[in-house]
Amino acid sequence: MKVLYLTGYKAFELGIFKNDHEGVQYIKKAIRQRLIPLVEDGLEWVIISGQLGSELWGAEVVFEVNEEYPSLKLGVLTPFLNQEESWNETNQDFYRSILTRADFVESIFKKPYEGPQQLKVKNRYMVKKSDAMLIVFDPEKEGSAKYPYYEAMKKAESLAYPIYQISFDDLQQVAEEDNWAND
């Protein structure tokens, strides 16, 4: 496996409105735990679409893991130009800090947002361009992450396309391990 599509819930879908929220550290830790074995197994690229939440936190994890494994690269394939335009300044700054550190940045549509079909195409494109998916997603609590998840499930029906899920139970376990370690 060379390319991994990392996605999941948006921050607001998890009730997280600041990057220093306690839950973010557990999400990042869970992503790291799944990512390292894949990198050790030959993973070269992680691609994201640059969504606030799981994707940008995952990008930060990629940068951390890259210090240990310099061959790992991050690609940001935004669905359309200026997707951060309507975000608040803090989120725009965070997003731009990820883009400036990414190894590759490109927009799938070379124009601003025109409609939800661009997001549908983005999901299909990201799954098509990757060899596997790592997704922060629990089918019990649907959100926008269900769309790339269903797209990946379709691909997995006919091709070997592993889908690595991080569920709420996984996050709970990471939090409990963390609390045990700090007691």
Structure notes:
- The chain is an alpha/beta fold and 183 residues long.
- The protein has one domain: Rossmann fold (3-Layer(aba) Sandwich), CATH 3.40.50.
- Helices cover 47% and strands 16% of the residues.
- The chain is built from six helices and six strands; from the N terminus they run E-H-E-H-E-H-E-H-E-H-E-H.
- It has helices at 22-40, 54-68, 89-101, 117-128, 146-158, 168-181; strands at residues 3-8, 45-48, 73-78, 104-107, 132-136, 163-166.
- It has a six-stranded parallel sheet, sandwiched between helices.
- Strand 2 (45-48), helix 2 (54-68) and strand 3 (73-78) form a beta-alpha-beta unit.
- Helix 1 packs across helix 6 and helix 2 packs parallel to helix 3.
Summarize the structure.
With 183 residues, this protein is α/β, with parallel strands linked by helices. The chain has six helices and six strands, in the order E-H-E-H-E-H-E-H-E-H-E-H.
Class of secondary structure makeup:
alpha/beta
| H and E string | EHEHEHEHEHEH
CATH class: Alpha Beta
Rg over C-alpha atoms, rounded to the nearest angstrom? 16 Å
Describe the sheet with the most strands: 6 strands, parallel
Mean pLDDT, nearest integer? 96
Quantity of strands, as a count: 6
How many domains? The number is 1
Helix content: 40-55%
